[in-house]
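Example record for the data management plan.
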Amino acid sequence: MIKLFYEICFGLASFMIIPFVLQRRGNADQEYSFMFALVPVVNLGYSWLASARSLDSALIANKLIYIGGCFLHLLLLLGVFSLCNFKLPHFVRIFFFTAAFVLFCGVLSIGHSDIFYKNVYLQVSDGYSKLIKEYGPMHNFYYVYMMILVISSLIVLIYSIIKRPEVSLKNLYILTALDVISVLVFFGGRALFTKIEIMPLFYVVAEFFFLLILHRIRLYKISTGVAVNILERGESGIICFDRAGNFLVSNETAKRIIPAMQRAKADKKPDMTDEAICKVVQSIEEFRNPVSQELVLLETEGSIYELRSDFLVDGKKTVGFYCLLLDVTKDRQYAREMEKAAEKAVAAEKAKSRFLAQMSHEIRTPINAVLGMNEMILRETDNPDILEYSDSIQTAGRTLLALINSILDFSKIEDGKMEILPVCYRTSTLISTMVNSVAERAKAKDLTLTLEADEQLPSQMLGDDVRIVQIVTNLLTNAVKYTETGGVTLTIREKRREGDRIDLFVEVKDTGIGIRKEDMGKLYESFTRLEEEKNRYIEGTGLGMPIVMGLSSAMDSRLEVESVYGEGSTFRFVLTQKIIDETPMGDYNTRTALHAHKTDSESIYAPTARILVVDDNETNLKVAKNLLKLCHIVPELVLSGKKTIEAMREREYDIVFLDHMMPEMDGVETLVELRKQGLVPEKTAMIVLTANAIVGARERYLSAGFDDYLSKPIELWRLQNILKEYLPKEKLETPPEAENTGKAGDGAGEQESNTKPAITEETDLLRLLEAAGFSTKDGLSYCVDNEIYLEILGQYEEEYDEKAGKLEASYRERNWKNYKVHAHALKSTSRTVGAKATFELAKALEHAADTLDIEFVEENHKRLLDLYFRDARHIREIRALK
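Corresponding structural encoding:
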């Protein structure tokens, strides 16, 4: 077969000499005569070499081949110069021919010297002969010579394309292509085809195109038939139109793909009632006036075709457009399969996250029941053995609850539902919470817990203090867990301050076991623990660090780790916070103690203040009333925007606390109506109550006409700051001496020491609530004392039927605006009483209703009602024990 290939190439090359000789026009073609004569000679050498059976015969054939290498490429270069109207200087021409002759002399020396080939021998394999050569110095010069020829011709062609308009661009493009192909074939052909030389084929192709260029006529009658055959039987359909959009011609493939094309008539508009033809026209229109980047696709009889259009050009003139129908069925099917696989993977990941979250919520109920009953055992038994067992149950139960909380956080991070909610917080309180979270554990292991807190830190900042505490607590807990001797150091200092922004540098350093370099990459993998066999006695799930990474990323920060195995680890990150009060925090321990033991002597005493509180939620109203009672203020309470207008029409107030999220008429709408009717005196401060205390909220509410905002659940110190700022100075009185150390009453002179400890019965009830899943710490922070907290809990339980009914009615009616309002109200009261799981889900559903994520609402509505019902039931059962 190889010999046959060479013989065919030789035959074609010899055949093309005939039309060249017949079509010669005097001296005009003298430049190319040798080139056409040499091509058959070179191809004869390849054919001879393939069948040679002796080294001498093979060397003769090889010398014929190198006539092409030495002279044929030079003749091609001269042909390019001639066609581009470049006159080659005489001395350059002499130089090139001299170099070619010297190289050929080197070829003739093969077998007599090692100047061209150092060594050569004949190899016969599968009936095919091949010379195995070890190149000499002249052969290297031969490669340099060839590159000079190619580069010279390329330079001339590129220059002509740019600067010679009189030369046919079509000819220049053909010659450039031949030049590039010659390089690829010469240098790459041997690498791709080890058993055959494809240069003979290139010589035939080059000869053919030179004939086309020289004579500018079709030399072969069969060429038209060949071209038509290729076009008609190709895999791609071709449809041509003139500039006016009239049909010109199409191949058989196009007619098979679009049967309506069989009826199309030349110079007529195509049948636009056929959908497939409309697609073709659309593709051409998209090409002429592109309005999108999308490809036009045609689907017919189970196949998919991609339609690509371009100009139909005759010489330099654009005469119309053509549309190419490319079969992309396999590619598209593969893409669809990959897309479906990706969708399944995403769905599986979401299902896993939902399952983890739902199971975590469901598991809480029996755990809370176990812990609640265990609390009863701890309270009622005196048997030391049973108490020891109960303590173990309590410890294990709390560990399990912590694990469930970690799974919930991890699920939120994976689903992208972890929200960062900036609030104003006290820096000293934040630090105290972080230190207290691990102090006992460090003490139990006899480890030193060192705090290095910068006294110049601002006393109040804006940020998500809950998530900051969660990050640092995770890091501190890990440090204590994996440290047996030495200690843990927490460093918090200012790194940079610019305007009202401060970069906090936080670092946790331990003297623990450290991390191996090869394990550093596993540090952030979920459910993965380092050196698990060695550390199997240490509790943990492997979720801590992924949660830390997710939370820090959500707050635009990045955790950095340094560790030396056997010596300890250091975790650090930088967090940007907004400064609320730039007064230096001072000594951490002093500030914490002062804040923790504030007395009523520091509180506000304003019994003559006129305050109106507006909220559609009675629980929120009761919380506000009790907090204002501590300031000796008896507020007026109303439940809607409409009643607010009625109240302000009858009476003037010093401050109006107006809830934002209310049904029918929300806070912003109410304020607009009040100002429209002129019911807001200049001295009345309008303060919006909102649970949406996010960055930029204050600015938005101010632009809506409010004087300030107060975030819910209301914290006493925030409320006092508002009162101090907006109450008239004459209303802020000095408290009577008799009440200076007493508990604020309702105006009837009630007095009770703030330092009086809570009764044992209330303490027991709080312990049971904590075991049932309530964060009594959060509840007490909003409700100030046990008595108010228990009262608000009762209100929360009593409102269950009404609130659950409104939520269910909005859901059934698909009234998502009202659903959002009722979910918002439940979110607010749940946070106030410390019902964290209900608060989180209500917040998520409020957001889903706002963004019309109906699928999420439908999936989680019943679960919210179930959580609310369980919370109410727990409260009812625990209060019944009182």
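Summary line stored alongside the record: The radius of gyration is 44 Å.
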